UniProtKB/TrEMBL annotation, chain A:
Pfam families given in the database record: TusA (PF01206)
Identification of the protein by name: Sulfurtransferase TusA family protein
Domain UPF0033: 4-28
Keyword Transferase found: yes
Entry-linked PROSITE patterns: UPF0033
Molecular function, one GO term: transferase activity
CDD domains registered for this protein in UniProt: SirA_YedF_YeeD
Originating organism: Nocardioides caeni
From TrEMBL, chain B:
Catalytic activity as recorded in UniProt: (sulfur carrier)-H + L-cysteine = (sulfur carrier)-SH + L-alanine
Aminotransferase class V domain location: 7-354
Family to which the UniProt record says this protein belongs: Belongs to the class-V pyridoxal-phosphate-dependent aminotransferase family. NifS/IscS subfamily.
Cofactor or coenzyme needed: pyridoxal 5'-phosphate
Descriptive protein name: Aminotransferase class V-fold PLP-dependent enzyme
Gene Ontology MF: a single term: transaminase activity
Keywords: Aminotransferase, Iron, Iron-sulfur, Metal-binding, Pyridoxal phosphate, Transferase
Annotated source species: Nocardioides caeni
Entries under InterPro entries matching the protein: Aminotrans_V_dom, Cysteine_dSase, PyrdxlP-dep_Trfase, PyrdxlP-dep_Trfase_major, PyrdxlP-dep_Trfase_small
Length: 74, 371
């Protein structure tokens, strides 16, 4: 699984990183973004809804920073 | 920089003083300086002006004059109103909508209580009435707080449809809605803020219906009116503005509603732009949208460069790092957010120019981000 390190990046940079990384992920595969920006927990699910991808859920990276995982659907 | 004067699209933050308020304020500054509690002539003059202001506001809100109090701000009106209801009954639980103004959220969080709860909203920002009714049944709930309309996305709340247990009063924050069409009626306490309708800043309104139990939660006399010296000229100017605004509201509201439809359609037609807020059950003068891959600060700055003053609920435009709790509660995109709010002097040309600029602005920012 590709994991994007967006620690320290303000919104909307983590979402832009997601969008740029998506073409490199096969349909059905997972893509994760690690981001401490508090907007990410709202904006990753919203991005999935707007772009027709699946929001799988949130957990935390080893250092406790939130990690959001999505699945490419199209 | 543009050489044109700035077009003000942020009346929902604060509205330019209404001409009727300006004239009244200037006259009242000369006559309303005395202490309205004194028995001398200057005191009597100030008292007359203050009672006149109260009577006019009461008529505008369709309440009795003795139900109207002036406070130092809309925020203070909410704090006094909400906490005073809880104080009177001794029941400290507060049930409120998730998209209420921060003054409601702060007052509810001030004295944490197990029955205090925030009621979720749907995608349009409409509160879940069933969840609200259930939460209001919890023990020790002393207040329900529900706004007339939302300050960020314009959605009107179904205040009159709230099913509340007997003896639980409802506070309606009407700050965003006063002057923009009919208000719900089923409330016990109403709060509002004069600078939102074209009055001066520093005047809040706290209306407490007769028969409602209210006790001061703060030091001072046990009355809803703020302690401290009243700003009589500002209260009178606020009343004059409200009267003038209501006289214009129907015609102006019709025009603004159509312009907002146009702005919503223009923004919504851009790729990856989400228009936020109820499409029809909304304030007439306010549109909000969020653009994917765009920073709220970038879009505000780019519109400012082109001469348009707008607001944003995105985190990068806020004093905190947190994005708007309203957008978050609605599940809306919180970045790239823009709020457009029209004024009484907005023109067709202003709206056309804004609509013509939106696409360029959003697509230009995305292009520079490499998208």
């Amino acid at each position: 699984m590709i994991e994007l390190d967006c620690r320290g990046l303000p919104c909307p940079r983590p979402i832009i990183a997601l969008a740029k990384a998506l073409p490199g992920v096969a349909v059905g595969e997972l893509l994760a973004v690690v981001a401490d920006d508090p907007a990410a927990r709202h904006d990753v699910p919203a991005w999935c809804r707007l772009r027709g991808q699946e929001y799988v859920g949130a957990d935390t990276a080893d250092d406790g920073v939130p990690r959001h995982t999505i699945r490419r659907l199209s | 920089m543009t050489s044109e004067p700035e077009v003000y699209f942020d009346s929902a933050s604060s509205t330019r003083l209404h001409p009727a308020a300006r004239d009244t304020l200037l006259a009242a500054l000369d006559r309303g300086y005395g202490d309205p509690r004194r028995l001398h002539g200057a005191g009597r003059d100030a008292r007359l002006l203050l009672e006149n202001a109260r009577a006019v506001v009461a008529e505008c809100l369709d309440v009795y004059p003795d139900e109207v109090s002036f406070t130092a701000s809309g925020t203070e009106a909410v704090h006094r109103g909400l906490l005073g209801l809880a104080e009177a009954s001794g029941r400290r639980g507060v049930v409120h909508g998730a998209v209420e103004h921060s003054s409601v959220l702060h007052a509810a969080a001030w004295r944490p209580h197990p029955s205090t709860s925030s009621i979720p909203v749907d995608r349009h920002g409409l509160v879940d009435l069933e969840a609200l009714a259930r939460a209001a049944m919890a023990p020790e709930v002393g207040v329900i707080a529900l706004q007339a309309a939302n300050q960020e996305v314009g959605t009107r709340q179904p205040v009159d449809a709230v099913d509340r247990p007997a003896g639980v009063p409802l506070l309606m924050d009407a700050a965003a809605a006063v002057g923009h069409g009919p208000l719900p009626r089923h409330w016990d306490v109403l709060t509002a803020s004069a600078h939102k309708w074209g009055g001066p800043a520093g005047v809040g309104v706290l209306a407490v219906r007769r028969g409602t139990r209210w006790s001061t939660p703060f030091p001072g006399e046990d009355t809803p009116e703020s302690p401290g010296f009243p700003d009589v000229p500002a209260a009178l100017a606020a009343a004059a503005a409200l009267q003038a605004v209501l006289a214009e509201a129907e015609e102006l509201g019709r025009r603004q509603f159509a312009w907002i439809d146009e702005i919503r359609a223009t923004a919504g037609a851009l790729p990856d732009v989400e228009v936020v807020g109820h499409p029809t059950d909304r304030l007439p003068h306010l549109a909000t949208f969020s653009a994917l891959y765009v920073g709220g600060d970038e879009v505000v700055a780019e519109l400012a460069r082109r001469g348009f003053a707008v607001a944003s609920g995105s985190a990068c435009t806020a004093s905190s790092l947190e994005p708007s709790h309203v957008l978050a509660a609605m599940g809306a995109l919180t970045h790239g957010n823009v709020r457009i709010s029209l004024s009484r002097d907005t023109t067709d040309d202003h709206v056309r120019a804004l609509c013509a600029a939106l696409g360029d602005v959003v697509l230009g920012i995305r292009r520079r981000a490499g998208l």
